[in-house]
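Bug #77: duplicate submission created two jobs. Keeping one. Sequence:
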Amino acid sequence: MAEPHSEPDSESNQQLGRERRRVDDLAQGLSESEVWPASSNDVDWIQTHISHVFLAGDRVFKLRKAVRLPFLDFSTCVDRNADCLREVQLNRRLAPTVYLGVARVVETREGVAIGSIQESIKDATAEHVVVMRRLSSDRDALSMLEKGLLGPEHLDTVGDLLGRFHAAQRLGSPAPWSAHDWLVRIEEPVMACFDALAEGDPELRERVESLRRVASASILSLRPKFEARRLAGCAVDGHGDLHLDHIWFEDDRDTPRLIDCIEFNEDLRHIDRASEVAFLAMDLRYRGRRDLAEGFLSHYGSITDDYGLFGVVDFFAAYRALVRAKVASLAAVQPSIAAAQRRGAHSSVERHLELAENLLQPPEEAGLILMCGTVGSGKSSVARQLARKGDGVPILSDRVRKGLAGPSDKVDREATSESDASRAGVDQGLYAPERRERVYQALLERAVPVLDGGRWAILDASFARRVDRDAARQWAVERGVPARLIEVQCDARVARERLAARASAGDDPSDAGPDFLSISQSRFEPPDEWPESDRETVWTS
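Kept job's structure:
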């Protein structure tokens, strides 16, 4: 982790005071409408705890404040300018068309002005701003959520983007820290949040210290899982600040833009990818949409084959709630911020603390749900709808099967797809009996962290044979968790049409085409042995 800042001396504080006054004067000058082109109309001046932000026409300009905080140091112009360059560079990873560059703040006798956009800083003694393309004010994920426009499909695209991004930004397998150092990297930011909160409102101190003890106990109990994820290579150079305000959908057909990553401290970006997705899930829960949060996590876990995240994601979500509480507590005491905004910050502190307390509670009881049916019956659609309601985490056999396959299986996969009408063909390669058994075992292995996280694990496979259903139910009995079965049925004509459409689209993880339907039907053993009290039939035609 980054070294803590030493206690500043009197001279350093005086210098910081001079820097602060200088930057504040520049900000005041930039707030004047005469600075900007007439086409900009009114200029909106927004303050965060570290920046002055100006919205002018089709541009956004961000001027760093002269501040020294436990997690960053913008004491000098050089520090602030270097951070401007980092912001542009790092944010172009996930929003390449949004970050235009940097520009010098020009001081003249007539006042303050913004220079031309550039890629580097030529005058290190002059303050610079980050220049961004202004995004539509109603297309951020928070605004869309408040208007009822944010749906699971939007969050799926965010999960897809993050899955690709995290794969490209992995920090090694295992991650390049010792087990002790990895644990410190997880624990220190959490405790820093408590330290900052305890220094704030005196009325919160007892509550904060109580929550600190709960978090410490959680860290102790989760140590084996944290270490397993370090060894598995789950550490990434991520975004680090992924909440709804930072996700934008300019067009429903386009890739979302993820802006404002953490650039000032790489330790806060070099994190477990579960901590990354936990931030967005936390923000959705904070705003009353647990269903969207769980659906997002389920989709991300599926496409990355990272079901282990469910064993730790609630802890990381609690940490993210503490981060938001800490940031709000800083804003709540800044006199330069408007009174109404400070009152909102006080409320945010309270609500985020409450959410952190809830997330650190022991997980609820959960169990297994077995999807059961022939190909094309709609099992995956039913499982996906359950996930989008927040009622479980689907684990797809088709994705698991291909995840277990090695490079040598490519030819087998292609041959199977081309000859799936042949009984011999579907029992070879990836679909050989021994491979099939391995897939069913892998489904149960992936269910363990899902159950540990207090969520129902939805095993999305055909479970056409009684022997496989019996094995899953016995596995649940041995672990003391309930097991339920959903048999999905539909008209054969509809199933055949679905399979044909799926094969034509070519974007489904399943290899089953319409010619395989008759084989699937002939091999299907109805689940009559399953207790009726724990069995449900869903008709999807």
